[in-house]
Backbone:
């Protein structure tokens, strides 16, 4: 059973046990516009919560994607690196960025559920 | 985000309401509330312009008339030559030329278009510089010219391979115009100034229209299924692929026309040994750059990878880093090239086509190659 949580910086996390799959929200992609490049973290790197973990670039600008929790990067999405436009077509599905091993589950406490995130972007 | 009152203080072009009704995403630009993109998005807008035709609101730009007090156009042309290194006298009636206002250091105050309309010169200048340009003209040319900022006119660019056929339906003379022809024409019965020019590398037109008629003309042009409204985002990616300078980024008060690789825009008559050599601000420095070369030069840069290299990225001679040798002044993703494109300044010794350089992006040095501009072949109708 997975739970999806959101950050105020517009990342989503699908949590399955102690592993979170991370991406950017559909709202974020709509604000960025056409995505032409993504840079993903190296597998094995340990990220600190709120550290810049990945980069997503539209024609116009580059934006950071932050680590929503502290932990080690377990896997990155090679399909996304090859086809960055997936962010626009399926932000909260096929366009996941990386999977991270959650070091401290208490960090999840500060994140939003879907209803809170909807209110945040309204 | 801007505070509410900041947004309210932004100026609006005569097409503002149309942009909003078309779903334009409005952003502040040069003091105006302008569409950065429409719902189609930058990528589609860019590609549509190259394939069919795009309509751009460039009404924020300044339009000025320079009328000779003597009644002789040559007197206005000679007067303007005191401020620009271009041959203005030689612009034939109905023709237009690219120019720069220079400063005493040989730097560029603004770049502009100058057209000969027979009894006066018509100037189009950058939005952010237009008030300073007008003051500069008044301070220097008031003895010879009457200077009017034509604030009651909008400016619409129609760019792309279908621009000619679309405009031909509203302006029978349009197809006979050649690149850089410019003059008064009726468009849809309206008193317009039409030039065959633009800022995309594509064939196309820029149409100056009375502000009160601008929305009607834009809507008429948009009725064609070939024409899509295009925002500032795609305007920037189109001009970057075309290798065209953006004032304040690729050229500014610290770059001379020679450093900026704009030698082609300075006619022989104004260079050393020419009939009217010098006589413009910074002539000593600019002519010395022509005669002896400048130490740095604006070049095109193609990334070897997929990561866009953007404005401000430092350039290095080798992968070991060390002292930076230059800087990227414009960079992004070129949708037609489907690859990153950039331009920047490097030492002349590193400016030859094919030179390998490195750009610092997020702490990494990415390989780049000095490349010919335009990156995308232009399609001007010569």
Residues:
């Amino acid at each position: 059973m997975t739970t999806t949580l959101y950050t105020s910086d517009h990342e989503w996390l699908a949590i399955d046990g102690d592993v979170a799959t991370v991406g950017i929200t559909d709202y974020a992609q709509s604000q960025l516009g056409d995505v032409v490049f993504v840079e993903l973290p190296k597998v094995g790197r340990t990220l600190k919560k709120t550290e810049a973990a990945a980069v997503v670039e539209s024609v116009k600008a580059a934006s950071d994607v932050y680590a929503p929790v502290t932990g080690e990067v377990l896997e990155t999405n090679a399909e996304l690196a090859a086809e960055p436009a997936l962010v626009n077509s399926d932000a909260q599905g096929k366009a996941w960025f990386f999977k991270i091993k959650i070091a401290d589950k208490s960090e999840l406490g500060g994140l939003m559920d879907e209803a809170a995130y909807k209110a945040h972007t309204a | 985000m801007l505070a509410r009152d900041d947004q309210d203080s932004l100026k609006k072009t005569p097409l503002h309401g149309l942009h909003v009704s078309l779903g334009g995403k409005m952003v502040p630009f040069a003091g105006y509330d302008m569409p950065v993109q429409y719902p189609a998005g930058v990528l589609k807008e860019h590609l549509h312009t190259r394939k069919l035709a795009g309509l751009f609101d460039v009404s924020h730009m300044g339009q000025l008339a320079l009328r000779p007090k003597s009644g002789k156009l040559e007197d206005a042309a000679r007067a303007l030559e005191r401020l620009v290194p271009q041959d203005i006298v030689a612009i034939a009636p109905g023709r237009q030329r690219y120019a720069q206002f220079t400063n005493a250091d040989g730097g560029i105050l603004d770049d502009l278009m100058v057209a000969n309309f027979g009894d006066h010169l018509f100037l189009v200048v950058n939005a952010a510089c237009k008030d300073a340009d007008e003051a500069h003209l008044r301070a220097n040319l008031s003895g010879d010219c009457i200077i009017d900022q034509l604030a009651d006119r909008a400016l619409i660019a129609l760019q792309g391979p279908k621009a000619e056929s679309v405009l031909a339906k509203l302006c029978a003379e349009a197809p006979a115009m050649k690149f850089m022809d410019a003059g008064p024409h009726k468009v849809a019965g309206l008193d317009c100034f039409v030039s065959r020019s633009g800022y995309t590398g594509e064939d196309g037109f820029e149409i100056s229209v009375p502000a009160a008629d601008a929305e009607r003309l834009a809507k008429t042009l948009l009725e064609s299924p070939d024409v899509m409204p295009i925002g500032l985002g795609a305007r920037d990616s189109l001009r970057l692929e075309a290798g065209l300078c953006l004032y304040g980024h690729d050229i500014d008060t610290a770059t001379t026309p020679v450093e900026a690789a704009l030698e082609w825009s300075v006619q022989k008559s104004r260079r050393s040994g020419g009939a009217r050599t010098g006589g413009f601000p910074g002539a000593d420095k600019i002519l010395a750059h022509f005669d002896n070369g400048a130490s740095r030069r604006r070049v095109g840069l193609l990334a070897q990878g997929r990561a866009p290299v953007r404005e401000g990225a430092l350039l290095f001679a080798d992968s070991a880093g060390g002292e930076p040798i230059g800087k990227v002044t414009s960079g992004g993703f070129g949708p037609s090239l489907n690859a990153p494109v950039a331009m920047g300044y490097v030492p002349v010794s590193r400016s030859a086509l094919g030179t390998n350089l490195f750009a610092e992006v997020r702490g990494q040095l990415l390989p780049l190659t000095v490349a010919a501009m335009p990156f995308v072949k232009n399609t001007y109708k010569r």
Notes: The mean pLDDT of chain B is 96. Residues 4-59+152-241 of chain B form a domain with the Gyrase A; domain 2 fold (CATH 3.30.1360.120). The radius of gyration of chain B is 21 Å.
